[in-house]
Every structure is written in structure tokens, then in C-alpha cells.
Design goal:
By secondary structure, this protein is mainly beta. The chain contains four helices and 30 strands. The relative contact order is 0.11.
Length: 399
């Protein structure tokens, strides 16, 4: 960092909005450091509106998170350090660097090259490099890490510049990214799905253990805001985690029905997938919908992000009036409620007519509690064709 860098202190720090809590004096921050209470150190430069970087410190929790920002306020690098039980040294647990090709590229643009390093106290590191961004393939390598590259001393309150610089990768990582370096394996993008959901809407299709039946219509959903929410309607979260930008409009909901062959119980019908149809076009790729803070570089093989449910339900609805729709659904479920007539059963679950809200809710049942990924079918041009959720986790649709 430049020699003219100076620091300010705040109670907290929001890395996305670059805002903190109450401003602290150096004396207050020093007292918090000594007692282990959380506080933020903001690195600034004269004449620059956005910070150079920020460090969120919480010694009682053993946490030190850092971020570096470019002149446009975009996060270019992040580091996670964790205090060991001896309280004398920090494990450099994770490093992440993003590269923006120009000043117009949005923060976290999916096409930006990224490199992440996940380190373990056993002396190993996993390097994931995405030269084409999140939608591209990832170069992966597991390497041994020298002790001095794995740990750093816990700094004193006035010793922040001595911490690892987070706006560049360490030399031992950068050397492995040079052209011609060996030891890499190529992995497909974690953002892209491997299941062809379309085949579960083609009657007569055979999948091991399954026969696809005719899809069943489950009403339509109005999405006037152009932001679709896919979430559990029984969740008390203020905002849905998963949203998908779609053209404002009214869209049909369909349930993919399959006949399941079970040697012990015979055969039975099951809803395998629910779909919101956005446009009539072929799907060229299936892409996982992501929520705030979801980073595919954190996913291991077979893992996915999605919406969580404790009530074995999910729903399609307009994100702009999500809470209003959820409240209306709750009232409509009351016995004798005047809103009860707004509810109708469907093959997937229920349909709620939102009336004057100008938006509706398509509620679908899942096979249980847990996290359910949301898959966006995109055309060759990248347009949203449909939004699908596999509701029956017990079925192997990837066979």
C-alpha cells in the first residue's frame, strides 16, 4: 500500500456496500482489540473516495477477514485468517483474487478471471484458477505449503501493514500460474449442471428406474417486477436468497411427472421437477442460480447452492412483493379465512392468486427439508428459457 495510506476505525464493516458502523477513535479501537471485541480497520488514501482495503477483526471469535478494493470500489481480493488456540499466530485459511478487464466491468462479473487458494493447517492447499470466469472450466491443483506460507504472527494493534498483502497472490501461487506450469487438472465449471431437465418433460423417455409421463400444468405466475424469487414460503427470512432476473410477464408452471419403478413397493407416480417456463426456446446450458455470498469456488464435487426449507416446500413468486405473497399465503391457510378462495391445489402443491398484488405464488412440495438447487436453463444467447427445481432428491435424474 502507498506510504500515504492512513487508517480509520469503525465498529463493523459491510464488504459489499463498503460501509461500517459507528466510527471509533483510535483509543476505542485499541480497547476493543485488547478485549477481543469486533472492530474494523479501514485503509484509506488521501483524495480517494473508496477505501484501499478493510480488515474486520474479532479476536474473541478468532476471526480476521480482509478485503482490497480498486478505485471503482470493486473487491479485487479477499483473505480469511483464523486465530489458533495458542493466540500467537494466524492460519491464512483462504485467499481469493479477482481480475477486472476494464473499469466498466461489474463487481463479481461471471466472466472475470478468478483464483482461489484454500489452505489447511496440515500443510496442504487447494488452488482453483478460473481464467475464463465462473462459467468457464477451472484449473485445480493440490500442493504442499511451506510452514512460513501457511501462518503469520498475530499483529499488535499498530502493526497492520505487517499482515499479508491481500491485493496480490503470494509468489508460491503466482509461480504456479505461469504458462507451462504442470500439476493441473481441468474441472468443468461448478456453475453448470449436468442434468438435462428437458428430458423429464418428454413423455415416454426412459431413465434407469423411471418412465417419464405427461407433464401437468400447475397454473401460472405473474412476475411484474422482472425478478423471480425461488424460496421456501414458510421461511421467515426477510428476503429470498435465490432470485433470477426474467422479463416482466406471466409464466406457466409445469410439473414433470415420472413413474418410479420400485422393487419393494411396485410402481408409483412422483413429481420429479417443477418448472417455470419463461420462453419457447431450446436450452443450451443449465446454470445454478446463486444468492448473495454464494461462490462456486467453495463448492466441492457434488455440492450445490440453493434455497433452504424446514417445511419441505418451495415456491415461485415475484421478489418485489415476496413478503406480501407469503403473508397472503399464511392468511389463506387459516380455517375460515376470507382469503381461502385464493388457494387452489395443483399437481406440485398449491397455487395462490395474488389478486391486487399483481403477482402470484406457485407453491411446490419437496421430498423433505434441506437445500434445493435452482437451475436456470439458458439459450445459446444466454437468455433465460426456464427455471427448474428437482423436487424429488431420492430420484437419480443424472443417470
Amino acid at each position: 500500500m502507498p506510504e500515504t495510506t492512513y487508517v480509520t476505525y469503525e465498529e463493523s464493516w459491510n464488504a459489499a456496500s463498503r460501509t461500517g458502523g459507528r466510527e471509533l477513535s483510535a483509543e476505542e479501537a485499541r480497547a476493543r482489540d485488547a478485549s477481543g471485541l469486533p472492530y474494523a480497520v479501514i485503509h484509506r488514501a488521501p483524495g480517494r473516495q473508496v477505501p484501499l482495503g478493510a480488515r474486520m477483526v474479532a479476536w474473541q471469535a478468532g476471526v480476521l477477514d480482509t478485503w482490497a478494493y480498486d478505485e471503482h470500489g470493486r473487491r479485487t481480493a479477499e483473505a480469511e485468517l483464523r486465530l489458533r488456540t495458542d493466540e500467537r499466530r494466524l492460519l491464512i485459511r483462504r485467499l481469493l483474487v479477482r481480475r477486472y478487464p476494464d473499469g466498466r466491468t461489474a463487481e463479481f462479473d461471471m466472466h472475470c478471471p478468478r483464483t482461489a487458494v484454500d489452505l489447511s493447517c496440515d500443510g496442504t492447499a487447494r488452488i482453483s484458477h478460473q481464467p475464463e470466469g465462473m462459467r468457464g472450466a477451472s484449473l485445480e491443483a493440490e500442493v504442499a505449503v511451506a510452514e512460513e506460507d501457511l501462518w503469520t504472527a498475530r499483529p499488535s494493534f499498530d502493526d497492520w501493514p505487517a499482515l499479508p498483502v491481500v491485493d496480490a497472490l503470494p509468489d508460491w501461487v503466482a509461480e504456479r500460474l505461469l504458462p507451462g506450469a504442470s500439476g493441473w487438472r481441468r474441472e468443468p465449471s461448478r456453475l453448470l449442471g449436468s442434468i438435462d431437465f428437458d428430458r423429464f418433460f418428454r413423455p415416454g423417455t426412459r431413465v434407469p428406474g423411471l418412465t417419464v409421463l405427461d407433464p401437468v400444468g400447475c397454473g401460472s405466475v405473474r412476475v411484474p417486477s422482472g425478478v423471480l424469487a425461488v424460496a421456501c414460503p414458510q421461511s421467515w427470512d426477510e428476503e429470498p436468497t435465490i432470485t433470477v432476473a426474467v422479463p416482466p410477464g406471466t409464466y406457466a408452471v409445469k410439473a414433470a411427472m415420472v413413474e418410479v419403478e420400485n422393487g419393494e413397493y411396485g410402481t408409483y407416480d412422483e413429481v420429479a421437477v417443477v418448472r417455470l417456463e419463461i420462453r419457447d426456446a431450446p436450452v443450451a446450458a443449465w446454470e445454478m442460480a446463486l444468492g448473495p455470498g454464494h461462490d462456486t469456488l467453495r463448492l466441492r464435487a457434488g455440492e450445490a447452492f440453493g434455497f433452504g426449507t424446514d417445511g419441505a416446500t418451495g415456491a415461485f413468486g415475484d421478489a418485489g412483493v415476496w413478503q406480501d405473497l407469503r403473508d397472503l399465503l399464511e392468511r389463506a391457510n387459516w380455517q375460515g379465512s376470507p382469503e381461502a378462495g385464493r388457494l387452489a391445489g395443483s399437481a406440485a402443491g398449491m397455487h395462490l392468486d395474488g389478486g391486487d398484488l399483481g403477482a402470484d405464488l406457485a407453491v411446490f412440495c419437496t421430498s423433505g427439508d434441506g437445500v434445493y438447487p435452482v437451475w436456470v436453463g439458458r439459450s445459446v444467447a444466454g437468455e433465460v428459457v426456464c427455471v427448474d427445481v428437482q423436487t424429488a432428491f431420492e430420484l437419480n435424474l443424472d443417470a
